[in-house]
Design goal:
This protein is of the alpha+beta class. The chain contains four helices and 15 strands. The strands form four sheets. Strands 2-1-12-5-6-9 form a six-stranded mixed sheet, with helices on one face. The structure holds magnesium ion.
């Protein structure tokens, strides 16, 4: 399986990092070794002094597809989850300055925690989903999928023009504003609507 992630998919987050609001999706990938499941602890890597949390809605691809039409893209995912796109912001900033790829900042081991998946049929409107990250009991990032710049269907259609999507692939769909550094001992909890899906510690 592979992990595809969308950058700058919420305007307020693009602005907080002084990035332009994109006109086409910004994508990058993480390897399967980035996955962190079952609320296992996240170990801060030694190579960064500034690892940020980014809470994101995650889609699970349910069947193989290439050149998927946006009209039919909803049939290619049937479950959603919450994930964190951990980002070594210090490394990313250096690489952005030089125009270099982001992998060292984004693709490291454990950089993609993901919760259990929930059938999307559970929700009346996928484009009015509240989600939230609490750090040490305080709300740090509050988002709603109505603020997505590129819809889930648009993302699937766009990515599948370039990369075949396979059953089990994950798409991290971007983070709302409020990203910040995590520290050893932090307690991270992710909520989708009122359900707690993420609950783990930084070590
Ligand atoms: Mg992200």
């Amino acid at each position: 399986m592979k992990i595809i992630a969308i950058g700058r998919n919420y305007a307020e987050h693009a602005k907080e990092l002084n990035n332009p609001v994109p006109t086409v999706p910004v994508i990058f990938m993480k390897p399967d070794t980035a996955l962190l499941k079952d609320n296992k602890p996240f170990y801060l890597p030694e190579f960064s002094q500034d690892v940020h949390h980014e809470i994101e809605l995650v889609l699970k691809i349910s069947k193989e597809g290439k050149h998927i039409d946006e009209k039919f893209a909803a049939a290619y995912y049937d479950e959603v989850a919450l994930g964190i796109d951990f980002t070594a912001r210090d490394i990313q900033s250096k690489h952005k300055e030089k125009g270099l790829p982001w992998e060292l900042a984004k693709a490291f081991d454990g950089s993609a925690p993901v919760s259990n998946f929930v059938p999307k049929s559970k929700f009346q409107d996928l484009y009015n989903l509240n989600f939230r990250l609490n750090v040490n009991g305080e709300a740090r990032q509050i988002g709603n999928t109505k603020d997505l710049l590129f819809s889930f269907e648009r993302i699937i259609a766009f990515v599948s023009q370039y990369i075949t999507l396979k059953k089990g692939d994950l798409i991290y769909t971007g983070t709302p504003e409020g990203v910040a550094k995590v520290n050893i001992g932090d307690h991270l909890e992710g909520f989708l609507e009122d359900e707690q899906l993420l609950d783990f510690y930084v070590k």
